[in-house]
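Lecture notes, unit on protein representations.

Consider one protein chain, 105 amino acids long.
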Amino acid sequence: MSKESKPNFLTKLQAKWNLKSLTQVVLVLIVFALTGFTILFIKKPIFDFLGVSMERGGFWKTVLYLLLVLPLYQIILLLWGFVFGQFTFFWEKEKQFFRRIIRKK
């Protein structure tokens, strides 16, 4: 009896994202990870420069995060995507992201 193998996590992502290889899936995941770490390291200096305390939450901290850090995340995502040869994939995702934002208005 042969057991049908279920597609693993990476294979599912490859199909969902319409990528050509599992290597490309891994590169895309690396780009997401590096972008997250980059934001983690630069968020505090940005908030410190603007005089916003990282310890306390609040309305203005949320507004600054949305206005500064979120767009910066998108830019850094494209930069890391370029470095790892995945710019086209991330550029298409960015266009989809902005189309969704524009439609919700």
